[in-house]
């Protein structure tokens, strides 16, 4: 339940947590695991502690931070005294906290430093379920601001090793608790809209299907607004020659191409997969071979194809799991991208997945990571 105090199982863990608490109180950021991704934490109610997060990540100051709490009591200390939880939040908190759901609340400027909200009227808050995250917050007895522990623009880290590779030399303590269960960031939900509708600002670990079901079961017929596709990007990319380089997020060093295997928009003629692979020959120069990373589902038509042997071309394959298990794809995506980066690939190809359940969040991240897309047929 959300009010139970976290239990700490070993003396070693407690010692590490206490070192981390000490650093946090000295305004030093600490890397800690959550069930979604690793976070870079600092005291949320201390503006100078929170500002160090921005410098470590190279994060633009207009991007607000999520505040993490370990109990409902702590949540209430952050809210304006006049604020009443809407029924939708009541239902969502009961069902998904602690867990990968972030909610927007009205921000009281007397309580929340403006550096946290980037001067927005709302503050984003979540209660993580990872025992180490919750124990850390409970022990420091204060909410922690924590973005994902990656340099701005890179994929979020799902292991302590990813954090070390990316932010080496800029960090103090990293609490290592192995790989993150969810693998993608929390779902960010705005339920403060005047029209009473709920808007999913970022799809994530809690699925839209589960949010809708929870509201229905609580007899709320609230509409949930969500962008299933980024139409603006889609249009740009519909012209096959447009690189669509406008947005880069969640991007490994190597450029990412999204391979759509579903039916193309009007006017786009898909290439056969085999012909597409042959176009990759153009990347080869005479001096060195080219490494191509491929992220494919295990049992899709694309995933089951064999990759052709082409002189000067080296395939590096990463499995995204079975078609019908989008939670597995979610867990593997960032690790697969970061592993290919580590292997020094020159280019990454990612297969499209269906936008149901965790697939929606997966495709949201993949679209942002991709600098171009192609339609292929198998
Ligand atoms: O799973 C997660 O949410 C992870 C772990 C560490 O908890 N954290 C995370 O934080 O993903 P970050 O900073 O990488 O992403 C925070 C997202 C951003 O898209 C930001 O724009 C949005 O939350 N956000 C934060 N405060 C907001 C606000 N007041 N209004 C609208 N969006 C907000
Ligand atoms: Mg992030």
Structure in words:
The chain has 378 residues and is an alpha/beta fold. The protein folds into two domains: 11-225, DHBP synthase (Alpha-Beta Complex); 231-377, Rossmann fold (3-Layer(aba) Sandwich). The chain is built from 13 helices and 15 strands. The protein has helices spanning 11-25, 47-57, 72-78, 87-96, 114-117, 131-140, 160-167, 208-217, 231-238, 273-279, 301-304, 326-342, 358-369, and strands at 30-32, 39-43, 66-68, 101-106, 122-126, 144-145, 187-190, 198-202, 224-225, 256-260, 271-272, 290-296, 313-319, 347-351, 370-377. A nine-stranded mixed β-sheet has the order 1-2-6-3-5-4-7-8-9, sandwiched between helices. Strands 11-15-10-14-12-13 form a six-stranded parallel β-sheet. A hairpin with a 7-residue loop joins strand 7 and strand 8 (198-202). Helix 12 (326-342) runs parallel beside helix 13. The protein is globular. The termini are far apart. Mean pLDDT is 91; it is low at 230-247. Magnesium ion binds at residues 147-148, 156.
